[in-house]
Amino acid sequence: MMSIAVIYGGTRPNGNTECLASKAIDSLKVEKIFLRDYKILPIVDYRHSPEGFPFVEDEYDSVINQALPHDTWVFVTPIYWYSMSGTMKNFIDRWSQTMRDSRYPGFRSQLADKRAFVIAAGGDHPKMKGLPMIMQFQHIFNFFGTTFEGYVIGKASRPGDMVNDFEALSAAADLGKVLEKYQ
Amino acid sequence: MMSIAVIYGGTRPNGNTECLASKAIDSLKVEKIFLRDYKILPIVDYRHSPEGFPFVEDEYDSVINQALPHDTWVFVTPIYWYSMSGTMKNFIDRWSQTMRDSRYPGFRSQLADKRAFVIAAGGDHPKMKGLPMIMQFQHIFNFFGTTFEGYVIGKASRPGDMVNDFEALSAAADLGKVLEKYQ
Amino acid sequence: MMSIAVIYGGTRPNGNTECLASKAIDSLKVEKIFLRDYKILPIVDYRHSPEGFPFVEDEYDSVINQALPHDTWVFVTPIYWYSMSGTMKNFIDRWSQTMRDSRYPGFRSQLADKRAFVIAAGGDHPKMKGLPMIMQFQHIFNFFGTTFEGYVIGKASRPGDMVNDFEALSAAADLGKVLEKYQ
Amino acid sequence: MMSIAVIYGGTRPNGNTECLASKAIDSLKVEKIFLRDYKILPIVDYRHSPEGFPFVEDEYDSVINQALPHDTWVFVTPIYWYSMSGTMKNFIDRWSQTMRDSRYPGFRSQLADKRAFVIAAGGDHPKMKGLPMIMQFQHIFNFFGTTFEGYVIGKASRPGDMVNDFEALSAAADLGKVLEKYQ
């Protein structure tokens, strides 16, 4: 059974990155997770404390529990300062804690079995200046053994701009064709 | 009048990255800012709302106010998932708000007049896999016109590991010699 | 008057990269330059010799003379060892000599007025591992002030493979729509 | 038995990159290979021809034969156009041929057993703009399984400039300490 989770890191509803993503997924069956709807605290590194990580009072668990059952993860993030949003970074940073959380014994190998896609948009030469972010995602996925199957980067700054980047919209639509078989 | 702010993104006191940084700055007069001591919320993008960004109830202002008087900024961050910590990313993301905050009219040109350094440490091949983060910092500094004068990347995972990377410690000491004239 | 030069760095006629490029340019009026048809020696660095660069007995001049009249340059190169082919690198390296060649007084500013595109293909995760090459091209174009307007990377190893990367072919076709207005 | 080959890609004797490298290796026993002393033609891709690669009339074999017995390879290259020199690229491109050359049956696994270092210098912000080249080397070494143990990048343009980059010279000296145990 295959299924898709789309994980949104944007903080503005219906932003340009969501618009770009919709071109890929609008006709697909996916579970959408908007990180902005959840309180997710930055990680505090207790990896090396004898007592381990303390319980964190936020809604991270709810998010990871929603995402884990799906074997395809699509990360949708605006490019903030040439990388993913802090909102999405906070979410991913917390994986370090989950890797050591006895409630998630197979977390690392679960991620190894997933395939990942990235859809991103930004205003300042994103197809060039967004590449370090793509490399960061690649390193993250390599860490787990997650297969990184594709990415699309769109250019847009002001609300509504996304419709002008026909190359990105077309690439997103093509990505959607790849995603079709994973829903 | 020149002076140095050292901005720490680590969440563990006396972590490896701090150890590496201390090699560069221990004999210098600097102002240390530990982001973990402040509550800094992720940005919510209101750049394009007619009413602009709402006031945020956290301690970001206190941090930026401490940092701005200094013309040399040293960013010290552990490498979390191949980029800066979420704590530091949240701090930098908020600059987008400060750029539009009438209380900080010269923010962008103030940053143009600064010089920046980065000191980072990580456990997974950081001198290779940390390079996208260095590129990301370069793009950030280029945006403002901040001069990016140097960086050091150390390898360390477990507490205390830093002392084993003699090349990084030596490079940090050399960076300290460059910083001397900016204090 | 606008016109397009397509500069091929591949060494195998009708290779995968050429196949990908043809999707972009087949219906356009372009001048094709196959670097493999010319003898181009690696540069020898005489930038700092009092007597300057000696005359080089090869066919580089013929190539650069063909390319210079066109204001859009499309670089088409297979990815060899994660960068452009040595054939193309030798060609670009020689620009350092042309910049100091009294027969080409406006070389640097001529390149500033050009727009550039890159079309590349490789077999080993090219959409990830080809990104450093894209960054290298970006730095080259930035040096001159050439605008870097787009790139497409395709995946293909064995002859004929290119037809299987429908996303790259589609992106190349979209690039062709951009190129249309520059012919 | 361990030993070191230093492979130089520069075209100007006693250039800045050689000066930087000398800081690392001057007190070590190494075999120096200056690629500029050999005629090495760009590869022509016959990987997929039924008859395979034809014999090439140049001096590549002599170079690879000198290098192969050593288990540590130090690549020393000036940064030309944000990557290795064409001279060095031509050398590395030819590895694709050697991988299919019956006279070198174990080439790929031989390279897997080597450790590699890179020493490079350039004039245009090399510690930033040289990073894609470092990534490119990393991908090359990853292909074979060669361990990439370190790199130093120095800043220098005009002859003699290298002495002014004390941080790079110091890093090269530290690299030399690492190399000591591999001679």
From TrEMBL, chains A, B, C, D:
Q: Does the keyword Flavoprotein apply?
A: yes
**A matching Pfam family:** FMN_red
- Which residues does the UniProt record annotate as the domain NADPH-dependent FMN reductase-like? 2-125
Q: Which InterPro entries match?
A: Flavoprotein-like_sf, FMN_Rdtase-like_dom, ISF_SsuE-like
What organism is recorded for this protein? Chungangia koreensis
Lineage of producing organism: Bacteria, Bacillati, Bacillota, Bacilli, Lactobacillales
Q: What is the designated name of this protein?
A: Flavodoxin family protein
Which keywords does UniProt give here?
Flavoprotein, FMN
